[in-house]
Design a protein that fits this description.
The chain has one domain. The protein contains eight helices and no strands. The radius of gyration is 30 Å and the shape is elongated. The model has no long low-confidence stretch (mean pLDDT 85).
Amino acid sequence: MLHQITYLLFKLKLVQPSESTLNFWTYYGHVEKLEYAVTNGNYKTRKWAAEGLEVVGQPSSIPVLLKCIDDKVQNVSIAALNALESIGAEDELIKTITKKRFYWVKQVQDRKAKYEANKNKKYNIYRWERASKKSFDRVKEQLKRPITWASF
């Protein structure tokens, strides 16, 4: 009864369901409540609901999880990808989408790790003398000298 009240308050946008509530919904297979939580909750709720949908494993929740893989929070999109991978194991489209998306997530994580590794690194900047600079200096010196008719 308490979990039903929590769901009603969640639909009214007054509270966010707790992890125990989402575990209850997962245990009893309340897929529609978990799908609503994936689309309308805060980032923790969305992550827990995606993990719950992975455990329930209903193929009817694949469209909701496909929308969820483009989430702004990376942990939510990874949880949705894991759920899609376990639910749509035979579907080639789902396999392709999750494979490409996991590759993209790995690239983002590698870029972030590379940035963190090089964040405090100091670089030496050297000024190399170029031929164009030398010729520019030579022309500048020639312009400083007075023009005589003997040089023509």
